[in-house]
UniProtKB/TrEMBL annotation:
UniProt record similarity statement: Belongs to the ABC transporter superfamily. ABCF family. YbiT subfamily.
Cell membrane is among the record's keywords: no
Domain (ABC transporter) ranges: 2-260, 328-541
Pfam families listed in its UniProt record: ABC_tran (PF00005), ABC_tran_Xtn (PF12848)
SMART domains: AAA
Entry protein name: Probable ATP-binding protein YbiT
MF annotations from Gene Ontology: ATP binding; ATP hydrolysis activity
Native source organism of the sequence: Bacteroides luti
InterPro entries given in the database record: AAA+_ATPase (IPR003593), ABC_tran_Xtn (IPR032781), ABC_transporter-like_ATP-bd (IPR003439), ABC_transporter-like_CS (IPR017871), ABCF_ATPase (IPR051309), P-loop_NTPase (IPR027417), Val-tRNA_synth_C_sf (IPR037118)
Lineage: Bacteria, Pseudomonadati, Bacteroidota, Bacteroidia, Bacteroidales
Amino acid sequence: MVSVEGLKVEFNAKALFDEVSYVINKKDRIGLTGKNGAGKSTMLKILAGIQTPTAGTISIPKDVTIGYLPQVMILSDNYTVMEEAEQAFGHIKELQEDIQRMNQELADRTDYESESYHKLIDRFTHENERFLMMGGTNYQAEIERTLAGLGFSREDLSRPTSEFSGGWRMRIELAKLLLRKPDVLLLDEPTNHLDIESIQWLENFLATRCNAVVLVSHDRAFLDGVTTRTIEINCGKIYDYKVPYSRYVELRVERREQQMRAYENQQKQIQDTEDFIERFRYKATKAVQVQSRIKQLDKIVRLEIDDEDNSSLRLKFPPAARSGNYPIIAEDLKKAYGNHVVYHDVNLTINRGEKVAFVGKNGEGKSTLVKCIMGEIDYEGKLTIGHNVQIGYFAQNQAQMLDESLTVFDTIDYVATGDIRTKIRDILGAFMFGGEASDKKVKVLSGGERTRLAMIKLLLEPVNLLILDEPTNHLDLRTKDVLKDAIRDFDGTVIIVSHDREFLDGLVTKVYEFGGGVVKEHLGGIYDFLQKKKMDSLNDLQRKPELSASPTAQNNESETVSENKLSYEAQKELNKKLRKLEKQVSDCEKKIENLEEKISAVELKMATPEGASDMDLYAEHQKLKQDMDRVVEEWESASIELEEAKGE
């Protein structure tokens, strides 16, 4: 469907890609992976036609549509959420207005026997059928379903987009893109602005309802849930595997091991040959054999090992003084903005050394509670920060707040004090800002590079309470793994606000769920929490508890870790089964809708004088009815199986 041939991209005479070729087929689910700066976003821009390569060709058939969601975009604020989303169906609205005009003209005209009147009838019939086939009568419902899946409530639909944060407006753009149903969907970090519920909805949508998808994401669980093919960009080349990310990692290791063995065997053969030539080069009796070996050596095709970028982030938090036993104690905490209650009656205690996660839909108060702990906003109730607590805070917008006029080195030099100033180059090198990279201006850094730079600033001061608000946004998979290891080894207390299931897995031992104005404690890790909530599609979080519910009873409810919890692999298998069943149900519903339209059309013909005596119409009607009974039976069976799998 899309063909890339001999692609080359150069920046300042340095090749980002060189001789890259591959094909995107129908229904491909491709995950683009590679370290920050490898060229993933550049590749998407080239596929979207936004950037021109130095050399090579991108072949896209004229009838193939491309949809592109960048990491950052300029958004307008002239409409409500629903009006903005409806722009995805602008072509349908134009067709609807055209049909209405034709309908009015048919009603006004009286020249029923004229040729032009009959042509108008034919055109009206054709356009009306096309309108129905395009889903013109139900696109409003489709918009509402998509926006609800991405976290919008029904009340949000009539609100102006200007009332929403940049992250929520990005969701609107994502909804518009999904509703347009392009042949090739290009997504650059689509989960950065989504919460866990919306991520799992999007994961299911992309896996079951989209055409071809090319995806850049640093969320390993999301990649595994969506993709069936992985293309790694590494050192200017690509490595194409027809498997999801986790399996690709295994195959990549196996491939390098095989290459290494073959390379070592060939090197031994070359060395033996060269030794023979050198030993007998000047012996006349061995002249024939020496010449034969020289020719043999010339014919050898030298094997190469895939280049591997071994630069890594060695992250270690400096030791800090011991804090009190209870760094954070909240008692009857409440935060409201006017009549809007963000949360109320929050009672929680975080012990020294605990690593906890704050999860829930965006806007439910996770970051608000963090700001209360930091003393940035006021609140009602009592919030106690323990003895000798030293807080290190990483906010979502910290990377964007860096001074763009400074260089990387100056950014750290301005905040470093004491002996640490003599080690700035070493610290920057550890964060992959070695050599000339330390002299780059902040304004030219990628999102991931800015995040790493902001993380360095956090590490300059010893702390015993880390509060990390979406720390993994824009971090590549390798850097995320190293950060996760460093947090796991950190002997202080950690609060993580994150939607990244894979990052939280094995890291946190307690989950605080924010929703409906209350904060509920769950013991165990993130997958214990998901399993307990039966949240393979996270429907439980959509059913928010009412504010009138007893928060004390909810907070004091005994939560135990499920003994029969699913392992991560079992969870993936269950999710795969659910997606398959959901697709089966969706396909059946589409078939039923199509059959209903066909049956209605046949019945309209049968109601005419000519059709009443047409036996072929009766036979067609009977067959359609039989098909309908069969599909309805299939739909009922799949729906029951889906409900059982979900535990509903």
